[in-house]
Amino acid sequence: MLQWKHAMALPVSLRRLPAVVAMTPTIFFVVVVLCFGLLWTVWTSFTSSKLLPSNDFVGLEQYIRLFGSDLWQVAVVNVAVFGLLFIGGCLALGYVLAVLLDQNIRFEDGFRTIFLMSASLSFVVTGIVWQWLFDPTYGIQAAVRNWGFSDFKFDWLARKETAIYALVGAGVWQATGLGMIIMLAGLRGVDQDIWNATRVDGVARWRVYIYVIPAMIRPMIATAAVLLSLTAIKIYDLVVVMTGGGPGISTEVPAKYVMDMLFQRSNLGQATAAAIIMLLAISLLVGLPWIIIRLRQLRSAGGEQE
Fold first, then answer.
1. Which CATH superfamily hosts domain 70-301?
2. Rounded CA separation 52/32 (Å)
3. Among 33, 103, 126, 278, which residue's CB has the most CB atoms within a 10 Å radius?
4. 229, β-bridge pairs
5. pLDDT digits (tens, 9 = 90+) for 212-271
6. Are 41 and 275 in contact (CB under 8 A)?
7. Contact assessment for residue 89 and residue 168, using Cβ atoms and an 8 Å cutoff
8. pTM score
9. Where in the cell (predicted)?
10. What secondary structure letter does DSSP report for 140?
11. Is the Cβ–Cβ distance between 177 and 126 less than 8 Å?
């Protein structure tokens, strides 16, 4: 007790000193490493850097080349298709699983662990497993043909038209558990009075889950959507393991475009320009929902004051 009183008698600056010392490495990392790295990347994207950085300023030439590249345009379209299907699939399946677990079933902890187990794997492991499943020689196609269906085809990875959907299936399988656990937390936070009121009014339980509950757990759905969006934009290892960007360039994505420009084509300026565009897209996905929520809060506060 005496030591606590003695500590409280110290000046505020001295009481904060241990916290400042503990946070110094983190502050140094954020300010020096991240900020300097970001500024260096932005500057390099305006230069003609190839294998090594240079200070040859070329303005927006790298960005003009980037948006004029057919490979980049294909990559953007692919990540948009992958992102929409990936996010939609994870949210839909995750919500269904969350609703099923919300029924006070037996062995809920076990089922929750099983559904989350895939999320603990890396996309490299997931890609290898799903590559085996889609392999015509060893995967699903071979198994079904061994059962006597000799005309059965399941060669999605070998066809340009379906390869991107094979990636979506693998991604949804892994990330659905993340959306499920976030939305399950939202379901557990729903006031019991809501269920009592709908029961008195004779509203079917499935209607409540479809028409009422999603609006009440909107923040959880938005959180899951943002996290899944970040995963979709940065998708790289799953593509490299399963398809390598092929067949042809049918599954090329922006992250792979950056890595190829950086390590295979030794075009540092083009790689950093593409990386900056990806950073802007990620910042927009993270910042826009926060701005919308903040504006709604300000409007609600203004309405209450009136």
1. MetI-like (1.10.3720.10)
2. 22
3. 126
4. none
5. 888 888 888 988 998 898 899 889 999 999 998 888 899 999 999 999 998 888 899 999
6. yes
7. yes
8. 0.84
9. Cell membrane
10. H
11. no
Q: C-alpha distances in angstroms, 232 versus 58, 83, 176, 226?
A: 31, 5, 13, 10
Two structure tokens written together for 263: 């390590």
Max intra-chain CA distance, the chain: 84
- How far is residue 260's CA from residue 266's CA, in Å, rounded to a whole number? 8
Q: Which residues of 139-164 are buried (b: 16+ CB within 10 A; e: fewer)?
A: bbbeeeeeeeeeeeebebbbeeebbb
The count of other CB atoms within 10 Å of the CB of residue 251 is 29
The CA dihedral of 203, 207, 209, 215, to the nearest 10 degrees, is -90
Q: How many residues does the chain have?
A: 306
Residue 20: which residues within 8 A CB-CB, separation 6 or more? none
Q: Which residues pair with 47 in a beta bridge?
A: 57
What does the alpha-carbon distance between residue 35 and residue 169 come to, in Å, rounded to a whole number? 37
What mean pLDDT value characterizes the chain? 85
